[in-house]
Please model this.
Amino acid sequence: MSKANTFLSLILMCLLAACTTIKLPPTYLYNLDINPLIKNKPASPVFEKTLAVDVPKSTAAIMSRNILYQDTNHSMNAYAFNQWSDTPNHMLANLLMATIIDSSIFKVVLPVNSRANSDYVLESTIYQFHQQLMSGAKSSVHVRIGFYLLERNSAKIVSTKQFTTNLETNSVDAKGSVEGFNKAVNAISADVITWLASLEL
Model:
């Protein structure tokens, strides 16, 4: 082996050794948490009906574990080393189910893929779910979700409603973003309860 090849091999070995010693920061996982149990809820269901809750639909970008933010140039990005523990879609479905169960609006609340029959299905679409960066080191979270209540057997639309929440964050980072999202989705889930309870089923 020539001296040039030997020298090149030594350089490559050093580079590989250096690469193996680089330590990446840990990845932090975040949840959408459910608010505490509702106090003074009805002793019996408002409706003697069964509801199935479907997982919200969305774009592929939202249907991921990325925590998304949009800068002032309208470019959508994701925080590095910070992720949701599950997709917002699945976490929202769980949050909605827990909130509706706790509200005692329906006799039984099930996931849509349950083998049990249900009278109604709650479908939804997430249109917005990102942090918006603004000038002056400020940001806000934007959440917009459309809901559709359907009769299960006939697929007839009973009622539709869309809720939008924009909240300024406490900090312009992933932690502030997650705090804002938690406040936003719990506010929307409370609006969903008010809407469902107002229907004549």
